[in-house]
Amino acid sequence: MAHSPLSRPLSTPSARQIEHCRAEIDHVDRVLVRLLNLRARLALKVAGLKRGAGLPLHAPGREREVLRNVTEANPGPLDRAAVAKLFRLAIRESRRLEENDKGGGRSART
Predict the structure, then answer these.
(1) DSSP three-state, residue 9
(2) I need a surface site. Which of 1, 42, 64, 103 has the fewest CB within 10 A?
(3) 3-state DSSP call for residue 12?
(4) Omega cis (within 30) before 77
């Protein structure tokens, strides 16, 4: 027995709605990748400046400040712990890049 459109629950999303949301997610993902790479390039620049000034690369106080800033700026629905976890990973990857950077703040695309 075929179901009529009226027998379908009103809350059932259409395939078109799902695809639209997925396209928006894909767009946001591409923007996030660009922003994460921009963040990494800026971290490499800071590392180059620190090296030039003879300063230590690792700044635990600054990392705590970054985590405090992003968790306080978080409106949700991600909770503070999730945002902190994401930024700890971004910081860790930036630190990895800084440690491997031989170009004084420049990185090759890989």
Answers:
(1) coil
(2) 1
(3) coil
(4) yes
